[in-house]
Write the structure tokens for this entry.
Amino acid sequence: MIRTVVTGIGMVTPAGVGTEPSWAAICAGRPVAAADPGLGDSPVGISCRVPDFDPVARLGAGPAHRLDRVSQFALTAVREAVAQAGLDHRGWDGTRVGLVLGIGGWGATTLETQHHRLLEQGQAKVSPYFLPMALPTGPVAPIAIEFGVHGPTHVVCTACASGTSAIGQARQLIATGACDVVLAGGCEASLTPLISTGFARMKALSRRTDDPAGASRPFDADRDGFVLGEGAAVLVLESAGFARSRGARPLAGVAGYGATNDAYHAAAPEPTGAMAAAAIRRALADAGASAHEVDHVNAHGTGTRLNDVTEARAIRAALGSGPSVTSVKGVTGHPLGAAGAIEAACTVLSIRDGLVPPTANLRRLDPEIDLDVVAGTARPQRIGLALSQSLGFAGHNAVLAFTSP
């Protein structure tokens, strides 16, 4: 099997536009949730929006008007990741380059806007770009066109595990020799009245609307739900040999991937965490590593009553209490299909910098969570092997294993 490495990262998150601004805010543990007028009269009017994102300034007038917000995020992240990797797409063999993106849903902003336009103004006012903008495949075309990606291109949907699943599948394209380079990650832009209301009706969202900054509190004894977020993150994956041939310096290795399904409930996790633990074990087996070698876990950590306890049981069962554990959702909220990719990027950055970000808003650890959860301030730690874990609706469990380069 061909070794896979990460050579570039691009991030657009509620913590900032760009990898370094996002990482700095996440490591500082600065929550960004705030009141969101864009959610209309949704029962929960707070969110974690990407700040100061001007699509015209970043992408130009054409992409800004023809692309849904989710595609704008994805394209921005790809541009940064490719530049950071030191790749020039004008000189690469596009047939050896792939693209795998995870998305939890669709171009929700476009879907809701165009539906209202149909109802209020009639068929003639529906944009001819409606379907290319709104379909889950929407982010793929502009990226493939701009970067000349002629290899395999896939959109992956495993709910909130989508970004993790996408990177795992992209690694397989490298490992089997199908591609030399794959752009892989996740994207989501679903901060709309309908989506917010849907999650509120499921009682999944925090109701701390009087304290938005303190609402997202993973692993905390007083947690009451997550805060909706948005964003994108993309990793440039390369075969180690290809990266070496062009003199690239890897940030980390992608050593393993494991995935399972609870086959239990449409939304709730299976309470014992048995299949989530199995996904961890599969990722370690794929990496040829053992549990005691794991230094750090970047957890899904949504801040819901059910997820955090179930995930803690899974980590404890598969790894014991040794690894440091964190969740970045105290800062970013829950970016749904982009979450796993953002957290995978943070895991790589933890390896790069020897630093584990704190779990923001963790004031009193739930006594049922018997793990070494990092809180308060970022923790310096030398990391040789780290896991990034995602748990999605419909029982999706996905885990990536990253190693120091």
